[in-house]
Amino acid sequence: MSAYIFRRLLLLIPVIIIVTFGVTSLMRLVPGDPATLALGQQAREEDREAFREKYHLNDPLIVQYGRWWQGVFRGDLGSSVRHRTDVTTELRHRMPITLQMLVMAVIFTVALGVPAGVIAGIRRGGAFDYGARLLSVGGLSMPSFWLGTLAITLPFLWFGYSYPTERVSILDDPLKNLEKFWLPSFILAVGASAGVVRITRSAVLDVLRNDFVRTAYAKGLRERVVVTRHVTRNAMIPVVTLFGLQIIGLFGGAVIIETIFNLRGVGLLFVESIFNRDYPMVQGIILFFAVVFMTINLLVDLTYAFIDPRIRYS
User: Positive or negative, the Cα torsion across 110, 114, 115, 117?
Assistant: First the structure.
């Protein structure tokens, strides 16, 4: 197991280099001058040139990329050309917002998707099964930006309820904090939980056809015991695979949801940095996303061995 983990960690290196260099190259192809966007159209050319020299924007691409990696090895992701602050400092301020929303979205996804999928599979052909499948199709069909817009607009039109605009730390006021975060987290989890319902139902139906399930029923075990000990655990491997992909998808959805709900997280920062041609900030965020995605994939693979002890990594 340790050798497998070590090899997977080594694979992080070329993947991160390819991803960061690819994004760095593509960003330079996007029209727009970072100095003009940062200083404004009325800035003098001398000031723009000084700005470019300060942030080494006139250097060749490979030189800028190499200098950025030198800073990464020292724990310095560079300075934002838009916010005039360290990228690390800005990410540290924005990260808790995105992470809280994603953690709550994962909780919603698991709480809604897995039980509904298991029950739909156990009660195949029943009212709950048809209802769960109908809702899952609807959840997959409705884009998150549309749901988010309706979730803000309709309560205001119908009940006069305004979505809170200020964020309060969960340590200072947990209720106000949850009022701010539960709605975008739920909207973000709708599509993911719909996919989990469908794959969980299919996995449960496959497991129910196996001989060991019929044997468990023949031995007189209660349905609750059969479902929890035998059916659910054996059905979790494809669910975990999808769940890992869904978590990665939640990061992409966070960009849209943070924009709609005006959450000053990493997703909104990423969008702003692209529009402002803030190269160091974009590179820092991409590095963070790449590490997170690869770590999630590794954890998903390791979870297989926990669910099914027969799986061995060599």
Answer: positive
Q: What is the pLDDT of residues 43-80, one digit of tens each?
A: 778 878 887 887 777 788 888 888 888 888 888 888 88
pLDDT score for 186: 92
How large is the average pLDDT for residues 168-191? 84
Query: Cα(112)–Cα(108) distance, rounded to whole angstroms?
Result: 6
Q: How confident is the model at residue 309 (pLDDT cuts 50, 70, 90)?
A: low
Question: Domain residues of the chain, as ranges?
Answer: 94-275
What is the C-alpha separation between 228 and 249, in angstroms, rounded?
28
The one-letter code for the residue type at 247 is: I
Q: Is the pLDDT of residue 32 over 80?
A: no
Euclidean distance between CA atoms 63 and 57, whole angstroms = 10
Cross-strand partners of 79: 86
User: To which CATH superfamily is domain 94-275 assigned?
Assistant: MetI-like (1.10.3720.10)
Give 86's strand partners: 79
Give the CA angle between residues 181, 183, 189 to the nearest 5°.
100
